[in-house]
Specification:
This protein has 162 residues and is α+β, with helices and mostly antiparallel strands. The protein folds into two domains: 28 residues; 131 residues, Glutaredoxin. The protein has five helices and six strands; from the N terminus they run H-H-E-H-E-H-E-E-H-E-E. The longest helix is centred in the N-terminal third of the chain and has 25 residues. It starts with a helix and ends with a strand.
């Protein structure tokens, strides 16, 4: 009986480790340093997604757990550089001011050259987020990979407006 209990315990622990390992490999990797992410975006010629968030914000945590790692958004993971910045950290306040963060979650999209392409605030579904990512990619393709609109844009419906 003891052998069965030990075997079950070891199996449960192993399964837990394997499941956690699989979940972490499915999750999107975020940089927590804006300068590092900006440099990577420029070098890789990929647009930059800057997520302003906080641990105490339920919509932020919902996006982090359900939207960014979703099967709908997963195909976009390698098409962008992702930065996840804590709105409560004082080092991020100048960036929040620069990108007009008035509420969280707030997501800004920058061209590889660092120009603002668009932004929105609030939580969205994975389907809505993929529509926004498609729009950002299209906007960058129209304006050139290093430029991007300087216009202040906000979410309207399932996308970002000019």
């Amino acid at each position: 009986m003891k052998l069965i209990k030990k075997t079950l315990a070891v199996s449960a622990i192993t399964l837990g480790i394997l499941t956690a390992s699989q979940q972490s490999s499915d999750a999107q990797e975020f940089s927590h340093d804006f300068e590092e992410a900006s440099e990577l975006a420029k070098k890789s010629q990929k647009p930059l997604i800057v997520v302003f968030s906080a641990t105490w914000c339920p919509p932020c945590q919902k996006m982090k757990k359900s939207v960014y790692p979703s099967t709908e958004v997963k195909p976009y993971h390698d098409s962008f550089v992702w930065a996840y910045l804590d709105a409560d950290e004082s080092k991020n306040r100048p960036l929040m001011s620069k990108y007009g963060v008035n509420g969280i979650p707030h997501i800004s999209f920058l061209s590889p050259g660092g120009n603002l392409v668009g932004h929105f605030a609030g939580a969205v579904s994975p389907e809505q987020f993929t529509k926004i990512l498609d729009q950002v990619q299209n906007d960058i393709a129209k304006t050139g990979s290093n430029s991007g609109s300087q216009a202040n844009t906000e979410r309207k419906g399932s996308g970002i407006k000019r």
